Structure to design on (231 residues):
């Protein structure tokens, strides 16, 4: 009985860093959904967050012999890959520095790039904006990987959806309470991603390409949460 009591106490005492809070992940999911809607509505009808579509279109155009179009699709893929690589460089550089964390620096990069994108008119090739957003999404998804101990993605939903129902099965068939809470977290992230996409759709139609600065407001809130809150 005593050991059981100690185990319960340890679970209640478990804490997470600011970067792993559900609030942080939820706000980042709103940004992810917003950017998908923004690029689809205003920047060429594409989804710049995930690269599966670009990889498929790359293969299709190579098979058709249209190497020009294939080249256009490989650029955002390379931008995404570059973002992941640069994030790893940042992580290794900030490992021993206490005044700022890698994740905080990444948020500042996102804010600066999205602020710049807000000045690029629709007359400019959408490829420039979409490549930039692909890069932004890659550094975000590679820097913020967990919410309260659960792996997730803030810029795409396929993995979250799979994990959500895997945990739901684990709860309904094995009565695993931890799986239930993980399922709820994934549902929350997916819902917030959808909310972000809805906001992005409305603001894109009402305000135009400047509406991307809404993401800067959300990311500023994330930065403040991560830097002010004591872990």
């Amino acid at each position: 009985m005593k050991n059981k009591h100690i185990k319960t106490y340890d679970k209640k005492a478990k804490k997470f860093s600011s970067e792993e809070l559900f609030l942080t992940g939820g706000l980042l999911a709103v940004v992810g959904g917003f950017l998908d809607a923004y690029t689809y509505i205003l920047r060429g009808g594409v989804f710049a967050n995930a690269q599966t579509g670009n990889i498929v279109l790359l293969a299709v155009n190579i098979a058709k012999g249209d190497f020009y179009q294939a080249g256009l699709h490989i650029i955002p893929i390379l931008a995404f890959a570059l973002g992941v690589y640069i994030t790893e460089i940042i992580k290794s550089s900030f490992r021993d520095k206490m005044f700022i964390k890698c994740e905080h620096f990444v948020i500042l990069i996102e804010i600066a790039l999205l602020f710049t994108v807000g000045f690029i008119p629709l007359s400019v090739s959408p490829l420039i904006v979409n490549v930039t957003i692909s890069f932004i999404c890659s550094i975000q998804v590679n820097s913020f990987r967990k919410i309260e101990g659960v792996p997730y993605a803030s810029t795409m939903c396929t993995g979250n959806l799979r994990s959500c129902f895997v945990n739901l099965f684990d709860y309904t068939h094995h009565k695993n309470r931890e799986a239930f809470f993980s399922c709820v977290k994934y549902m929350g992230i997916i819902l917030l991603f959808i909310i972000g996409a809805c906001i992005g759709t409305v603001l894109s139609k009402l305000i135009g390409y400047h509406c991307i600065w809404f993401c800067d407001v959300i990311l500023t809130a994330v930065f403040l949460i991560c830097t002010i809150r004591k872990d």
